[in-house]
Write a structure and sequence with these properties.
The complex is a heterodimer of chains A (316) and B (277).
Chain A: H1 10-24, E1 28-32, H2 36-39, H3 42-47, E2 52-54, H4 59-71, E3 75-81, H5 82-85, H6 90-99, E4 105-109, H7 127-132, E5 138-140, H8 145-157, E6 162-166, E7 187-190, E8 195-199, H9 203-216, E9 221-225, H10 234-244, E10 247-254, H11 259-270, E11 275-280, H12 290-296, H13 301-314
Parallel strand pairs in A: 1-2, 1-3, 3-4, 4-6, 5-6, 8-9, 8-10, 10-11
Antiparallel strand pairs in A: 7-9
Chain B: H1 4-28, E1 30-31, H2 34-37, H3 40-50, E2 65-68, H4 74-84, H5 89-92, H6 123-137, E3 144-149, H7 156-167, E4 173-179, E5 182-183, E6 186-187, H8 188-192, H9 197-203, E7 207-212, H10 216-227, E8 234-239, E9 258-259, H11 262-275
Parallel strand pairs in B: 2-3, 3-4, 4-8, 7-8
Antiparallel strand pairs in B: 1-9, 5-6
Classes of the chains: A alpha/beta (316), B alpha/beta (277).
Chain lengths: 316, 277
């Protein structure tokens, strides 16, 4: 199964959205920690130099400064790679952004395996898990450019802090131009009744490919995108749990505490079904291309299809 | 410059901040006394003379911001805010009781007049830098005041923020370091010395002034000097004594957090009041 590519790199779409909004919304400010080129925000800095704060390689201070800006009525977007956007400054985010419930927008780029040749030090497998466990924090991981654009109004208006996890390069195009984003409501990409495949971010394309493999064997799998892990679509998860009776989760990061856990917790609480979790199985990353790492870590469409069959078998 | 009468009045206010802080911790049974008492004179000058604030309108957009980054000294801040009219004195006596709006560490969502949440050290200082950047961006004339501790300055984030503020020439930012020389485990000079503190701040492109933190006229003089600085943030290093003004706390490392009750507080308040006679 091959996917059409998005028109733009996600970082380009992100910067365009920032710049368009900044024209009319004086609250928009951008903070960077020496990764402006990687995050694609240089055009913003050129257009709005006085509203761009490159604090240098000092992520803890970036979050604290953003909190001060937010407390003064600004809507700060803080951009850096996912490990530095989360675990590097976790306490600062916890106290200065989440505990205060100030509207910081923390944008982590190069999630999970996307760090590729930057390797184990730069692969934040745990960012979603640790941010999800933080009260007041919301989480959004766009699948493609279309979804990012569709969610933009919510990104600007949602109360309190928000963590956005963005693949900065060109993503496979999943959503059509008629796509409508609803925060806290999963997006149904493919209907199905035998197994529910819940997927986030880059793994959504793999989940769709797995559904094709399963269809060839006469198995009808639904593919559901949980773009916002917080607010979590509890009702949506339970609807598909009841409909399919078996689930697989697919995420570009650790299965400990993130999407897989969210689905397992939700079903265990209200409608227990078999849940197989595809993702990084509690180990660190390493240098490598995404296809190589997905193969090595058991995160390919074939692995997802096998997990679906195993989950279906457990129904009996 | 303050008149002698003003200095006397502010010194009396500082004493009231100390007395109320002492009482609040007595009611709670335990609390961060030492580092609250060491900033009482500064808080009196800021909240009762220098800062443009309005107790009737704590969120006034053009107010000066005061960020107590050494958030464990919340007791003194609450005492100052209450005495200044932000909330009734009775509320002070609920500090750290179940369900209170006054937690030991400052909470901007619960305390009227508190401009930032603090407690995990150095974070308030970064936020103050952000507030100063916001004020400059919006072409606002208000000042951002922030109070850090010398022990707190062992946090790396202090220096991340100091570097940024110095490089951005944030002259609308005035910081105070409560240099009482003590931290929980002992003397700052013995644990991980900050000295030479003035040279450190100067090296980060700050204008540095030293003052006696228990001489209100001297702090005021330092603030007058700070007003004249237009191309740098200002650090006023206040030489202070931890536990200042309370006989069983003054100059003691153990004053950081003390356990005592209402009776001990009342006896000490009576002693302090007698000093005036």
């Amino acid at each position: 199964m091959t996917f059409e590519k998005d028109r733009n790199e996600m970082r380009k779409a992100y910067c365009e959205l920032l710049m368009k909004t900044a024209e009319t919304d004086p609250r928009i400010v951008v903070l960077e920690a020496d990764l402006m080129a990687s995050n694609g925000t240089k055009p913003f800095a050129a257009a709005y130099p006085e509203r761009t704060f490159d604090v240098g390689i000092a992520e803890a201070n970036m979050i604290g400064v953003a909190a001060g800006l937010a407390a003064s009525g600004k809507l700060p977007f803080c951009d850096t790679f996912t490990p530095f956007a989360t675990r590097r400054c976790y306490d600062q985010i916890t106290v200065s952004a989440a505990y205060t419930n100030l509207p910081l927008r923390i944008v982590g780029t190069d999630p999970g395996l996307a760090a590729e040749v930057n390797g184990g030090t730069h692969m934040s497998m745990e960012d979603v898990a640790i941010m999800r466990s933080m009260p007041n924090m919301k989480l959004f991981e766009p699948v493609d450019e279309t979804q990012l654009r569709a969610a933009w109004d919510w990104i600007l208006t949602v109360d309190g802090p928000l963590y956005i996890r963005i693949f900065r390069k060109t993503a496979p195009k999943i959503f059509g131009e008629d796509y409508r984003f609803e925060p806290g409501k999963l997006s149904v990409i493919r209907e199905g009744g035998d197994a529910a495949i819940f997927a986030t971010g880059l793994m959504t394309a793999d989940a769709l490919e797995a559904a094709e493999l399963l269809a060839a064997e006469g198995i009808d799998a639904a593919v559901l995108n949980l773009h916002t892990l917080k607010p979590l679509d509890r009702d949506g998860i339970l609807f598909w749990a009841k409909k399919c009776g078996a689930a697989v989760t697919c995420e570009n990061g650790t299965v400990v505490g993130a999407l897989g856990s969210a689905v397992a917790e939700t079903t265990a609480d209200a409608w227990p079904i078999p849940v197989k979790r595809i993702g990084v199985q509690d180990h660190f990353g390493e240098v490598g291309t995404m296809p190589y790492l997905k193969e090595k870590y058991g995160m390919t469409p074939k692995d997802i299809a096998a997990a679906a069959k195993a989950a279906i078998a457990m129904k009996k | 410059m303050l008149s002698e009468k003003e200095v006397r009045a502010l010194a009396s206010t500082a004493k009231e901040i100390r007395i109320l802080s002492l009482e609040m911790i007595g009611h709670a049974g335990k609390g961060h006394l030492g580092g609250a008492l060491s900033i009482a004179d500064l808080l009196a000058l800021l909240y009762f003379k220098r800062a443009r604030i309005d107790p009737q309108n704590p969120k006034w957009e053009d107010r000066d911001r005061i960020v107590l980054s050494k958030g464990h000294a919340g007791t003194a801040l609450y005492a100052a805010l209450s005495l200044r009219g932000f909330f009734p004195r009775e509320i002070c006596y609920t500090m750290n009781q179940n369900g209170t709006t006054l937690p030991s560490h400052v909470d901007m969502r619960k305390v009227p007049g508190a401009d930032m949440t603090a407690g995990s050290l150095a974070q308030g200082f970064s936020a103050a830098v952000g507030m100063a950047l916001a004020a400059r961006l919006d072409k606002k004339g208000h000042k951002v005041y922030t109070i850090i501790g010398d022990g707190e300055s062992q946090e790396g984030e202090i220096w991340e923020a100091a570097m940024l503020a110095g490089n951005r020439k944030l002259s609308n930012l005035v910081a105070f370091c409560d240099n009482n020389g003590m931290q929980i485990d002992g003397l700052t000079d013995e644990i991980n010395s900050l000295e030479p503190m003035d040279k450190k701040w100067e090296a980060f492109n700050w204008h540095v002034i030293r003052a006696n933190g228990h001489d209100i006229a001297d702090i005021d003089r330092a603030m007058d000097e700070a007003e004249k600085i237009t191309d740098k943030p200002v650090m006023i290093i206040l030489k202070t004594v931890k536990g200042k003004g309370v006989s069983f706390a003054e100059g003691k490392v153990s004053s950081h957090s003390m356990t005592y009750g209402v009776a001990e507080a009342e006896a000490e308040v009576a002693r302090i009041r007698k000093e005036d006679e």
